[in-house]
């Protein structure tokens, strides 16, 4: 399997002739379908969002994480001759990138929600996880969940654009002036260190990873948000264009035997995923809400 890792670059403008060519190529690729292209040895563009431990660039410069490693294992079975090209985009650009054809698979641990299911197709989930906050050491404002932020008029929580945490904060009643949005994880963590906010809302695994080795920061214990009286858990999977339903189905065929197996656990445990995080719901269940 040939692997080419590069950042996603989008030119500021297109010459007319180039635009026509790109549109023609995009139309051809869309008509062919990603699964067929992959099986013929073509390129498959897989996007991560730079969020450890789900999908990120490691110290050696290679893209790694729970989702990219599973994607490599699945595609090795589905299309062993495919050329895998990994790119990094902002989290909020994943679904637009799928829809405009610039990426083929989002391998970023994206939570499967009814709203997102209206825009893209999902594989079955590969894990379930709760939430946590990254906070200053000692958690000065005692923030343990979204309700404690909502109840404290002096508390501010940073959110990453495009993530479910924005919805959690909104439903919990945290006003926008106390829930600033940041383009990426690094900017939010910088704001926390600078004292501009009191917490960053993240998945429990991401919070733990981001504070690791950071003096003066810690992660709160994991919690499950309660929205409209119901406890909410995060189930993450792979996202595809709706037109590539056959690719999602093929992924699910491999995942059915793989997720929870010894081989799978050995692959993801280095990233903090454990047997008690194996999912108990399907994408169909989660898309219904």
TrEMBL record:
NCBIfam families registered for this protein in UniProt: ectoine_ehuB
Top-rank lineage group of the source organism: Bacteria
Protein's GO biological process: ectoine transmembrane transport
InterPro entries the record matches: Ectoine_EhuB (IPR014337), Solute-binding_3/MltF_N (IPR001638)
Example GO molecular function: ectoine binding
Designated name of the protein: Ectoine/hydroxyectoine ABC transporter substrate-binding protein EhuB
Keywords assigned by UniProt, alphabetized: Signal
Residue intervals of the Solute-binding protein family 3/N-terminal domain: 43-275
Native source organism of the sequence: Kaustia mangrovi
């Amino acid at each position: 399997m040939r692997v080419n890792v590069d950042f996603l670059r989008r030119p500021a403008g297109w010459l007319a002739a180039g635009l026509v060519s790109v549109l023609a190529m995009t139309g051809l690729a869309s008509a062919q379908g990603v699964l067929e292209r992959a099986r013929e040895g073509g390129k498959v563009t897989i996007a991560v969002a730079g969020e450890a431990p789900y999908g990120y660039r490691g110290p050696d410069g290679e893209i790694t994480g729970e989702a990219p490693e599973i994607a490599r294992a699945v595609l090795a079975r589905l299309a062993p001759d495919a050329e895998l090209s990994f790119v990094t985009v902002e989290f909020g650009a994943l679904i637009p990138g799928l829809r405009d054809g610039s990426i083929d698979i989002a391998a970023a641990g994206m939570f499967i929600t009814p709203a997102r299911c209206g825009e893209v197709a999902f594989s079955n989930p590969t894990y379930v996880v709760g939430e946590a906050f990254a906070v200053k050491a000692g958690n000065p404002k005692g923030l343990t969940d979204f309700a404690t932020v909502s109840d404290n008029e002096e508390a501010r929580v940073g959110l990453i654009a495009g993530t479910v945490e924005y919805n959690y904060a909104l439903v919990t009643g945290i006003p926008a002036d106390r829930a600033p949005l940041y383009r990426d994880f690094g900017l939010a963590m910088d704001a926390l260190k600078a004292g501009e906010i009191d917490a960053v809302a993240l998945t429990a695994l991401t919070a733990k990873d981001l504070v690791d080795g950071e003096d003066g920061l810690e992660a709160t214990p994991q919690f499950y948000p309660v929205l409209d009286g119901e406890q909410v858990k995060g189930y993450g999977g792979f996202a595809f264009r709706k037109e590539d339903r056959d690719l999602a189905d093929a992924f699910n065929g491999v995942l059915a035997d793989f997720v929870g197996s010894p081989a799978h656990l050995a692959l993801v445990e280095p990233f903090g995923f454990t047997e008690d995080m194996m999912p108990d719901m399907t994408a169909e269940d989660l898309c219904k809400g």
